[in-house]
Input
Amino acid sequence: MRLLASCGLWLAALVVLATPAHAQGAKIEPADTAWMIAATALVLMMTLPGLALFYAGMVRKKNVLGTLAQSFAAAGIVSIVWVLGGYSLVFDGEGTVLGSLSWSILFNSDMNATHALAPTIPESLFMLYQMTFAIITVALVSGSVADRMRFSAWVVFSILWLLVVYVPLAHWVWGGGFLQKAGVLDFAGGTVVHINAGVAGLVAALMLGKRRGYGTENLAPYDLSMAVIGTGLLWVGWFGFNGGSALAAGSRGTMAIVATHLAASAGALTWMFLEWMERRKPSVLGFISGAIAGLGTITPASGFVLPWHGIVIGLLAGAVCYWACTKLKLWLGYDDSLDVFGVHGVGGILGTTLTGVFAVAAVSATAGAAGTAGLLYGNPGQLLTQLYGVAVTVAWVAVATFVLLKVIDLIIGLRVSSETEQIGLDITQHGESIHS
Output
């Protein structure tokens, strides 16, 4: 009875603890709502099936289903945890470090409720859109641990990492936390998504160790055509990822989409030509890797820059991420299975930094507020602010992910046995296999 009474008091407290970030009866615009419904679907498509196919096509046949399962499990787990408390902790209130739980399961919401950050769409839609970002960030990490992480460990990691690492960082950058108050610019997830997933993936890869047979056996992708299809879905879905981050149907979202597409194109071509010069043949894997590098790198800057900036950022993304995946990875000797750090981590760091160079005040301005200029337009201080945001993000994600994985390893273990790895995750973790 005491437990039931305590739960009742807790639920009652949630109902009455409304915050100024939420409003009832605000004017909801049909055009903005329609666009954000489409953008939400596009971003969810990036994980299911986009990222799932992209990753599954690049592992060996015996691990294809296991890799697909990690993306689908992340989608299901994150969705529930996000509604239960993740969303509220990020976007409810304006605490310096973390929000509150007063908006858990949208207890205070109704069909006409809106959020201060998205006043022209229903808050339920804003919550759902932000959920898709959390989903793909968790799913991205799976690329670094492909072929060797226990599925049970992945399930526990997805729950805890979302709450311990992603939620605080998202609040710091987007929910009124100290990085946002410091002036760090991140339009659609250079810090929250790409640096976050890339650094976490690197830490996980180092802790798990190299795959069995790494450097001695053929670890070639099972089916690159799957990865190409996945890349296409990611490329198109990124229009919702970056364009939707304007949270309205308008010119800013359109400009973000243009910059995004041009960066992807420039990144793909740059990687292709570099590989062509070095290896005498342009690979399909290289082309799609360059496209993803361009997409990830433009993400934090997309809503703050002009189209030609997108081309320059894409060119730099293709070159720098190519170097990270083909040179830096070999020099440091780590086995990041699907180059999550080299593409997303390095791309996120580069893109967040370049935002401080290319941001245009006239583009980044919102209604009734002055925009923020970067180094190229007379504000060198913004570059320093961006570097501060990068440093805080890298440090937080590296330390928190390391501690979290250590705890999981002590309790249930992170890596499958050598015999299990040799047989493959499909059979050993899921009791299924792909038949020829």
Remarks:
- The chain has one domain: 27-430.
- The two ends are 58 Å apart (CA to CA).
- The longest strand covers residues 22-23.
- Residues 27-430 form a domain with the Ammonium transporter fold fold (CATH 1.10.3430.10).
